[in-house]
Amino acid sequence: MRERPRTKKAAEPLQEPAEEARNLAHKLGLDPYDVNYWVVDYDEMNELIAYNGFQERYPHWRWGMQYDRQQKQGQYTGGKAFEIVINDDPSHAFLQESNAVADQKAVITHVEAHSDFFAKNRWYRMFADQLDAAAMLERHARRIEEYMSDPDIEREAVEQWIDSVLCLEDNIDQHEPFKRQFERRDDAEDDDIPDDELAEKLDEMDLSDEVKRQVFDEEWMDEQADAGELDEPEMDVLAFLRDHGKAYDEESQKAEEMTEWQKEILEMLRAESYYFAAQKLTKVMNEGWAAYWESMMMGEEAFAGDDEFLSYADHQARVLNSPGLNPYQLGKELWEYIENTENRREVCRKLLRTEGVTWRNFHDTVDFEEVQDLLAPDPRIDSIDPENLDELDDLAPEKVDEEMLEAAKNGEIDLEKYPWKVLTYRGLAERHFSLCKRQHRGFLRSVSQQDLEQYARYIVDDARYGSVEEAVADVDYTTGWEKMREVRASNNDVTFLDSFLTQEFVTDNQYFTYEFSQTTGDYRVASTDYEDVKKKLMLQFTNFGKPTIAVYDGNYNNRNELLLGHHYNGVMLDVEQAKRTLERVFDLWGRPVNLKTIVKEVDDRDAEIARRRDREPEPEEVGKLLRYDGEQFTMEDLDWTEVEDIAATEVDYDTKPEDWLA
Q: Are 233 and 563 in contact (CB under 8 A)?
């Protein structure tokens, strides 16, 4: 970024908060990448947001549209840009210079948690490990600019090609690492023989069968003949189009081999889609993780000063209570639920090993008020008193950082500002044990008999505690945080929701589903059952919330037509939008394209009867084939046997593909 006196001045007060936020993050058990913080002005922040956080992107109208939208959001709706962070190692975060120090500190703590997530989540490692994203995107920007500046290539043609590819940017295999199969060859000649023209070319050469067998071995011939056949659906639509697609030439009205620049741009944009896939796959987890630890640091550890707290609380409330499906709120609530559930399991299992306590008599025997008092953190940990630091000497050594304590006694640490410095990870875990927080005090008591029976079943240690006091004294306060880190390492949003969105969570947080009523013409609450809530939420995150489309045949009906299939999970395609997309796919295939899907149809008579009886009509699911030949669309019915492979099963309705959730 350009170095200006005012941005340098704005950065100076943030040096200490950035360093101390990193120190606190480590104390709390986080292990983030190093983070480079950049202070930018209002316009630069809007540009970075438009560019997805990067300083250079390829020329295209979409960036200007996103910039204009961001500016209008700030000017007319009161929207405020706080931060943007790039998941590289080291990470890069941008702070808007006009924001208050309280906001900057909130952003810094938020970014440290994001950076920890980048470093430890397997989906980020799968898609972006050892990848210098900024360098890759810069190379792509320069290469596409070269093509646009080439006098032999029409700039409009490049832009239209990019538009067509971007319509399919999410149609990649989101559960496999990126595999680069096409590499640009500067001096290569276009010597590939199109698959569908292979027989014609060989016939023109007038070769004998013996020569054909000598030059083109049988295995190679079979591979070319079967190029369009698929043993199973190809999820990476962009890769299939790159390998087998053609470009439709409007002048000749024929499919032509893709030029080098067309194939290279397709592959570059595909590579970018894979890079950004990790962000889309973990939006709820990642934002919830960052919101949780930001709240812990800024609020519970008072990283926000007394004069900053109200401003921070307002900032946090606006983020967590923004309308619509809010990944910050949903994610934070789920992380808190995981922490509470694991801490409750730890406490209950200790109590179930107490003399006289069983899973059957648990609620009648255990004095929950007594247990809450016993679980409360040691007063010396709960409130660090700079005037009585000698009291910390008697604490267990694993809870106190002896080196920092000695420095504090020598006046080298400002404990009024940073009391956490004299505690270890275990000390901080006790200080912030979730079941002792006011909002969670009823969570232990609400444990179900079913959970208690399960806890008891897996207790393998025969040793018993003589009293509740002994049992609680043996509780591991780090259990909840350790479980959170374990979940953070291995999940994405779909598995996260599937594993932890329970009836208890749905009830406690008042989640419900709503649907459009054909009878009344408005929206109504449909269900508060957690299975229904889970299904609806998972539909929002499976395949980034977009329809899942795969390639089923590259030689449909033996006519070199493309057959795509919509993985139907109870939600119909928007047919008009599907038509617009097929027009773009046609540009990349060069020949007619087909899409099979399933639609719900309601008979007018059944709809009228249902309306009179104040109930919803029962739709019939029907197979359809949408075809585009470059000029017109046709829609025809398909026999159910032809769409069984895309029809929802019980597993599909829950959006839990067995092959990657096993």
A: no
Tokens of 180: 């680069």
Sign of torsion over alpha carbons 82, 86, 90, 94: negative
Q: For residue 158, what are its two tokens? A: 């490049």
Who has greater pLDDT, 188 or 68? Answer: 68
Cα–Cα distance measured from residue 398 to residue 26, given in angstroms and rounded to the nearest whole number: 16
CA 513 to chain centre: 22
Residue 213 pLDDT more than 80?
Answer: no
Q: At what angle do helices 575-589 and 155-166 cross, to 10 degrees?
A: 130
C-alpha to C-alpha distance for 261 and 314, rounded to whole angstroms: 50
Please tell me the predicted confidence (pLDDT) of residue 459.
Answer: 83
Distance, in Å, from the CA atom of 632 to the CA atom of 630, rounded to the nearest integer, reads 6
Structure-block tokens of residue 463: 């040793």
pLDDT confidence bin for 100, thresholds 50/70/90 = confident
First CA to last CA across the chain, in angstroms? 46
Lowest mean pLDDT among 137-151, 329-343, 415-429, 592-606: 592-606
- Answer whether 408's CB lies under 8 Å from 389's CB: yes
What is the pLDDT of the chain when averaged over all its residues? 84
Q: Please, what is the angle between helix 101-120 and helix 309-320, to 10°?
A: 50
Task: Give the mean pLDDT of 24-47.
Answer: 93
Stretch 72-87: mean pLDDT: 69
Q: How far is CA 437 from CA 347, 444, 536, in A?
A: 15, 12, 31
Percent of the chain's residues with pLDDT above 70? 82
Give the separation between CA 51 and CA 60, rounded to whole angstroms.
Answer: 11
Distance, in Å, from the CA atom of 520 to the CA atom of 541, rounded to the nearest integer, reads: 29
SS3 content of the chain, % helix, strand, coil (to 5): 55, 10, 35
Spatial contact of 140 and 270, defined as CB atoms under 8 Å apart: no
Which pLDDT score, from 0 to 100, does residue 187 have?
Answer: 38
Average pLDDT over residues 105-125: 93
Cα 87 to Cα 70, 138, 140, distances in angstroms: 21, 16, 18
And the tokens for 368? 């929950």
Residues 6+ apart with CB under 8 A from 212: 202
Q: Which two tokens stand for residue 14?
A: 């943030």
Nearest to 403 by CA among 388, 414, 413, 417: 413
Residue 194: phi and psi, rounded to 5, are -55, 140
Q: Where are the alpha helices (DSSP H) in 150-196?
A: 155-166
Measuring CA to CA, which residue among 124, 89, 101, 84 is closest to residue 21?
Answer: 101
What pLDDT, in 10s, does the model give residues 607-632? 666 666 666 667 788 999 999 999 99
For residues 151-182, one letter each, b for 16 or more C-beta atoms within 10 angstroms of the residue's C-beta and e for the rest, the string is: eebeeeebeebbebbebbbbbbbbbeebeeee
Collapse the DSSP code of 71 into the 3-class scheme (helix H, G, I; strand E, B; otherwise coil) and give the result.
helix
**Strand 593-601 relative to strand 513-516: parallel, antiparallel, unpaired?**
unpaired
On the question of pLDDT at 417 being above 50, the answer is: yes
Euclidean distance between CA atoms 557 and 595, whole angstroms: 13
Cβ 32 vs Cβ 119: under 8 Å? yes
Distances (CA, A) of 219 to 212, 225, 494: 12, 10, 41
In sign, the C-alpha dihedral spanning 230, 234, 240, 241 is positive
Give long-range contacts, CB 8 A cutoff, 24+ apart: 409-416: 415/384, 415/386, 415/389, 416/386
CA 581 distance to own-chain centroid:
24
pLDDT at residue 192, rounded to an integer: 40
Please give the distance of CA 183 from its chain centroid, rounded to a whole number.
29
Cβ neighbours of 603 (radius 10 Å): 13
